[in-house]
Design goal:
Distance between the termini: 75 Å
Helix content: 25-40%
Number of helices: 12
Strand order of the largest sheet: 1-2-3-7-4-8-9-10-11
Number of strands: 11
Bound molecules: beta-D-galactopyranuronic acid
Length: about 425
């Protein structure tokens, strides 16, 4: 009896762990009913473009209220001041110009600064441009020693590239494989990047730091970190619209993983983004929440309580009552082009769930007489598909590779040039 009692908690923990283990078995994906793209909450069908305009608004507020959080009014109206702090006219051996631009809060000296790095082909003229966050500082996207080393809070690493949360010289170019800057420039595009931690350092500090120091702690259903990051992308776009070497009407927003979730939420809210790219964004990004494959809503809300708003975890155990699913987030990009990419070994992100979102979200493009993914079952590996909604699943793991960028450049060439 005594022994049994002692064993009980251990057993319960073990059972719990088992229950929380990720599912990678397609036959164990539960049956589910998805909320429709082209149907209002009141049950009416969406059949005209005017209807879609209203449905779009409805979906946006549902995603804000139940998933990513509502952007506080004062943030929506906040303008930042842009100051060019460095210009390197002979970047990439003279092929390109690199600019560093600081975006600051007016009247808030010592407040958060968003450091934007913009590379555009020489000679300068307005070009379509990719905008994306990086995970480790702007100086990691290319080893050029003239790029300013980020002074922002960084996640420590074992390689000595970050010490005491500060980037070291050793970290220059550390992420260059994810950013084929020269290839982008050679194909006539610009690239703008920001370190996402400039907006909100990625740890659960109870929303004290980053831009929360300006806007205050979220209350009620207000935003989590993904919401603040997405807001930062829009502020970067405010600046890019004024940059003479950037075509502000042709800015593609790109992101990988948690930052892919962010690029989707930014693209959904801000229709000035001309094209939207989600690279391996997974749960809370492109992947359908109801599939219970790989990372689940419960798991993500437990591991990263600061990413979404406080209401999202209330659906951890009851996904069927979540009023939205992620194919509707994809639909919010319509009629603009959107690209979703998966990787075979990135099962955690549920490649099939990412594909299904792209495919089912495509319904919205049909209202505009445009083709989305089309009538395709799961495409083969390294076989990109789709017209205004693009998709590929490539070989390899959770990452951003040259293969991914080549597809994004092809897609952007088709739609933005
Ligand atoms: C993982 C997380 C994913 C994804 C990834 C990343 O730990 O479970 O949802 O966002 O991090 O951003 O690298």
């Amino acid at each position: 009896m005594k022994l049994r009692r002692a064993l009980l908690p251990v057993l319960l923990i073990a059972m719990n762990l088992e229950a929380d283990e990720a599912n990678y078995d397609e036959s164990k994906v539960p049956e589910f009913v998805l909320p429709e793209v082209l149907r209002f909450e009141n049950g009416d069908r969406v059949s005209t473009l005017a209807d879609w305009g209203k449905r779009r608004g409805e979906l946006l507020s549902l995603f804000a209220k139940h998933v990513y959080g509502i952007t506080p009014e004062k943030a929506v109206s906040q303008k930042l001041v842009a100051i060019e702090t460095q210009r390197i006219a002979d970047f990439l051996g003279g092929k390109a110009t690199l600019k560093e631009v600081s975006l600051t809060f007016p009247g808030r000296e010592g407040g958060p600064v968003l450091h934007l790095l913009v590379v555009t082909p020489n000679p300068g003229k307005p070009v379509p441009t990719f905008l994306g966050f990086n995970f480790r500082g702007n100086h990691t996207i290319h080893p050029d020693p003239r790029i300013t080393l980020s002074e922002s809070w960084m996640r420590p690493d074992k390689e000595g590239r970050v010490v005491d949360h500060r980037a070291t010289e050793k970290s220059r170019g550390a992420s260059e494989e994810r950013w084929p800057v020269e290839e982008i420039v050679d194909r006539g595009f610009g690239l703008a990047v920001i370190y996402y931690g400039d907006i909100d350092p990625d740890f659960d500090d109870g929303f004290e730091n980053g831009v929360h120091s300006i806007f205050g702690k979220p209350v009620g259903d207000e935003w989590g970190s993904i919401g603040t990051w997405a807001w930062g992308l829009s502020r970067a776009l405010d600046y890019l619209e004024t940059d003479e070497e950037v075509d502000g009407e042709k800015v593609a927003v790109f992101g990988h993983s948690r930052l892919g979730k962010t690029s989707l939420w930014a693209g959904a809210q801000d229709e000035r983004f001309a094209l939207v790219i989600s690279n391996n964004s997974g749960c809370g990004g492109a992947a359908l929440s109801r599939r219970n494959f790989g990372e689940t809503v419960k798991r993500i809300n437990t591991s990263f309580p600061h990413w979404f708003n406080d209401r999202f975890p209330t659906y951890n155990e009851s996904l069927s009552s979540l009023p939205v699913d992620q194919h509707q987030l994809i639909a919010l990009m319509a009629p603009r082009p959107v690209y979703v990419a998966s990787a075979v070994e990135d099962e955690w992100a549920d490649p099939r769930g990412e594909f299904l979102s792209a495919k089912l979200g495509s319904e919205a493009w049909s209202l505009f007489g445009k083709e989305g993914i089309g009538d395709i079952e799961m495409p083969g590996v390294n076989e990109p598909v789709g017209d205004h909604v693009g998709y590929h699943i490539r070989t390899g793991k959770h990452d951003v590779t040259d293969y991914d960028w080549e597809r994004y450049l092809d897609f952007a060439e088709r739609h933005l040039k």
